[in-house]
Amino acid sequence: MIKFLLMVNKQGQTRLSKYYEQVELGKRAALEADVVRGCLARRKEECSFVEYKDYKLVYRQYAALLIVVGVTENENELSIYELVHNFVEVLDKYFSRVSELDIMFNLDKVHIILDEMILNGHIVETNKNRILAPLLALDKMTES
Amino acid sequence: MSDVVEKTLTALPGLFDSQTGAAKITNRLRQLVKSITELTSKHEEENLIKQELCAMKEQVSSPNTSMKQMREIMVRAMYCEMLGYDASFTYIHAIKLAQQGGVLEKRVGYLAVSLFLNEGHELLLLLVNTVLKDLQSTNLIEACMALTVVAQVFPKDMIPAVLPLVEDKLSHPKEIIRRKAVLALYKFYLIAPNQVQHIHGKFRKALSDRDPGVMASSLHIYLQLIRESPDSYKDLTGSFVTILKQVLGGKLPVDFNYHSVPAPWLQIQLLRILSLLGKEDQSTSELMYEVLDESLRRAEMNHNITYAILYECVKAVYTIHPKVELLEKAARCIGNFVLSPKINLKYLGLKALTYVVQHDAKLALQHQMTIIECLDHSDFTIKRETLELLFRITNAQNVTVIVEKMLDFLRGCNDEHTIIHLVGKVSELAEKFAPDNSWFIQTMNCVFSIGGDLLQQDVPNNFLRLLAEGSESKEEDDQLRLYAVESYLTVLKGHTSHLPQCFLQVMSWVLGEYAHLQGSVDRREVIRLLTQLLDQRSVSSETRVWILSALTKIPEGQTDLILHLAERLSSSQDTVLRQQAQELLHLSQDSQLHEWVLPRGAPWDAIEVDSSLSFLDGFVSEALAAGAAPYKPPHQRQEELCEDRALNLEPYSFSLPVSLSSCSITDRQSPTLLSVSSGLSGNSTELSQKAGSSTLILEGVKRVWGKDGYLPQKEATAPLVDEPSAAVQPPVQQEAAERTEPRPELSTRNQDKQQLASSLFVGLGVGSSVSLLGRSEAPPPRFRKKPRPHESSSSGTSEKSSGSSCRSSHHTTDIFLYGSFLEEEPATSKSAFDHTPKSTTANGLSQNKDTKEDKHANTSQIFGGDMVIVRPSTIQDKHPPSESSDLTALLPADLKDLPHSDVISLTSDPSLSLSSCRLFRDEALLLLIFISNCTETVIKDVAVQLTCEELKTASLRGNIVDCLEARSTSVCHYALLMDDPHTNVSFTGTVSYQTQPGHTNTLPFSGTLSTADFIRPLVLTTEEYGKLWLSLSHDVKQNLKLLTDAGDPLRTTLNALKDALQLHVVDIIGSEGIVACRLLSGAPCLLHCRVSGAALVMWLRSPHPALPDCILYHCQRALAHR
């Protein structure tokens, strides 16, 4: 099960955070800092999974942006690793060559995309067209 | 036409405003994002967000803010919250936005709600209507977002409101709606499974939905359901197999593919479901062999996602009923994984292997060399996973090597979580497989010094219990203990300042307990080493307690050292240490007491801790008798303090002509409150019942002292002495360098690895094939722990056992702390409560008789006759309660007219049943005890003894009956006098009788009386009252509850009091009333009541200091219980 998903840049600044298990607002910053430190400390040739407290962290880096997913011990890390890539591919399709700034200026839309993919910590949709369908419909309606 | 133009014109400014406004806002978001990207320090961030929050606050409260602007504000609020700043003032606006905005605004509103509010937030209730509206909307997008938010956060209590709508959506023509409805129902199932029980049939429909997305969504529900009860869904196995086959066969639309792999996450989900269904079920497993085989075969493409599927597939193959060919294929897969140069794959391979070796340990043998390599891998995660794998394959033969590897890893590790986790595993392995004593002790030494104070408390507790309980053979146990003692002495002789507290505690306990086993070591040396520890500054006060306890156990003949120590510590700042020093001093001087308090080698379970402190009862009752206030727990004291304050607020104004000087309110230490509280919960058991269990709150102080003295509360759970809290202290810095052993030489590395392999994997396979170097035969384990039936690997029991071991390791302290009291225990428990009866002779009065001779003379003259034997033919029923009602008929004729209470049953046994009735005479309380013979035979020599320490008791008649006929009842009369008021008093007594000659039975009984039984109205005029009032010295004043349910509150309240307490209402003038009563024919008590607001201000005066308190207490009760 997925506990949280973070998008962080290399400086450790959070660009997006989504928790599927309640974490107090005050504790999030510390958790995020810990998580990012744990992931950034690792070298390229090391594996993309790292233990953190009771979670396993699965992380994947795209340019300066790091996507970290906290999962439970029984989760299939490699499938999450690929899920992250699927997510980025969806973002890429929507924003056509997504960048950190795209995500920042469209925080709400990135969240809407994520909501289609992951619900309550479960992967609910991975079909790119279907993930984007509601958002594209929204865009169409606001344009007209 | 002109109308339209006009409208357009008037609308224009607003239009412009909102447009420019929107542009401004968009700029604001843009500006915020820009500023965030330019942040360089935390301080800057704080300033920026604070400004932003202020600006937002202003905007949201402005009526001109449009929904579009509000949407921007929500996104800005998301930023603030994401950075950790509270923006809760926007929550309500998020809900508003979802309610009123256009589609995009609405979506952002819902999004903000799902991000900001967690389940159970009260604002969510405001969302329900919006959701309901949107669910009914014809606009697909609106219905869609409503379903999304329902599946994210929705108040549990409101599920019934939306459930029918969501259910309807299951048959919606659009797949996205059906899909989201299924997910919403899944959410409902998670938070309130009972609510969706009736729609399980519809889940099946969703599973066979023509759309793959809807089907996939239903799998979430099924995974959950099958995990909970696999047996109920076996019939679906075929469906899941078919679905997986179709997916594998590429029957899904192409857009479900991910890198040409068809719906990989769906495959993974299906494999998980299948493995749950096939687990330990051969016939079900057989249904899926084919599809699993195909799945293994298809996933040959070289991509991460296929490996992820393979991993899941391998797990499934090893979970279900085994099939050899599949197992072989799966094993080959794992081999490819672990050998892969791709590090992520290697990790997954190790993880799979860790899972698989639980079922088939031999598989590890095939990959032993890889495992060894991974053990030295530079990647922390890989190493960690390898250790996990090794932990699973540990047996008695390879334990030393594996534990050594784990300890090596631990020494280089500084992640707290990993240390705690791994150290626990090491100690588990050491306990399970230890080859010999020295290894076991050495390993545990490492565990304690590495794990230190991060350790879970159960690790040291288990270890100490293991030492203490031992195995079947005492010799072996003593050897182990002896080794521990020796080892610890060596450790203590070295540097001790870096040792964790928990290790020091373990050592001092062991030394205290077992140092005597070591004959060759000088006791003085042990004492010296322990004393040395006491002087160290790094030693915590908790550890000092452990050390001192140990020192208390050791001495025997080393009095000089101990005396010196005790003297030094008796001036310590720490009160606990000081107390212990005193005890140490005491015990060291009295070897007999020492032997008794700390018996050497006593079996563990034989020591019982009296956590209710019943041995203190004598002391407590004496103190109470001497006028001490009953014990009150702090919370109660706090409450009273508040009440007290409330009391003082009352102005000192009286309408009665009384000079203030005569009533010194200020000098009272509020005994009222004391007595009130004593009636409610003031008893010494509170001391030990930290949990404050309500069962122990007894009616009155005295009731605690039952017929057998104080009854210790067996169910007392709270430990007497606070567990030394497992204070987590910062980890002691490990001197890793000092410990790490030199790495093997590179040249011989390969050979070393082979050797390592042979030692690691020994005992996994069969016979000689196991070892690479042919040194397979390992010595059989010499060291076996006694199997402990109550300790299994499950966490539940380990918790329990840790609890018990906590107790065992502390109870020595308990005994020690209360050791000096223990000595007196047998005596106190008997003498304090089994008072010799004051009146034992028939028709005799107590020894107090002489003081009140004249008064009692009348009574005894009046009742001087013989006992009355009544033989009612009506009494057939044996059961006392129903019998009692008839018993009032047995009241002697001369007493029938007296006011009396109901007959209550006291006790009964097969032969006799006892009931009592109280008769209120002016000068005494008559207690009638009805003794009913329930048998068909004659009972002889019935004798009643009644005692009550607070009251004067006199048996008037009937306390000895020579012969009680079958089914008859005898009445025994007692006169009770109360000189000193007590809130409640209890009496105890016994009835002895003979059913057969020479065979005496006794039946104990007890009961409670309240002051109210002894209060009599005092009839006097208003003038007399006024005079008497002025002459009385002791007064109490308090506010009572006023009964306001009737027209005249004062009169109602006074009547209620009159009924309950037999008071005499002298007069009622306006809002004031005067009431009088007295204690039997003794001390009067005058009550002055005045209505003040909703309260009754009651002022009591009496010549007797304690009487007003008692009466006040009963007044409060009488009013409270109405």
From TrEMBL, chain A:
Entry GO terms, CC: cytoplasm; endomembrane system
Membrane topology of this protein: Peripheral membrane protein
A GO biological process held by the record: intracellular protein transport
Protein location: Endomembrane system
Domain AP complex mu/sigma subunit: 1-141
Homology family: Belongs to the adaptor complexes small subunit family.
Protein name (database record): AP complex subunit sigma
Organism taxonomic ancestry: Eukaryota, Metazoa, Chordata, Craniata, Vertebrata
Automatic annotation (TrEMBL), chain B:
Compositionally biased residues, Polar residues: 838-848
Membrane-related topology note: Peripheral membrane protein
Subcellular location: Endomembrane system
Location of the region described as Disordered in the Swiss-Prot/TrEMBL record: 717-754, 771-810, 828-860
Compositional bias (Low complexity): 723-735, 792-807
Record's compositionally biased regions (Basic and acidic residues): 736-752
Keywords: Golgi apparatus, Membrane, Protein transport, Transport
Domain AP-4 complex subunit epsilon-1 C-terminal: 1016-1120
Family matches, as SUPFAM superfamilies: ARM repeat (SSF48371)
Signal peptide: none
GO-annotated cellular components: AP-4 adaptor complex; endomembrane system
Function: Subunit of novel type of clathrin- or non-clathrin-associated protein coat involved in targeting proteins from the trans-Golgi network (TGN) to the endosomal-lysosomal system.
Similarity section: Belongs to the adaptor complexes large subunit family.
Subunit structure, interactors included: Adaptor protein complex 4 (AP-4) is a heterotetramer composed of two large adaptins, a medium adaptin and a small adaptin.
Descriptive protein name: AP-4 complex subunit epsilon
Species of provenance: Carassius auratus
Lineage: Eukaryota, Metazoa, Chordata, Craniata, Vertebrata
Recorded name of the encoding gene: LOC113082813
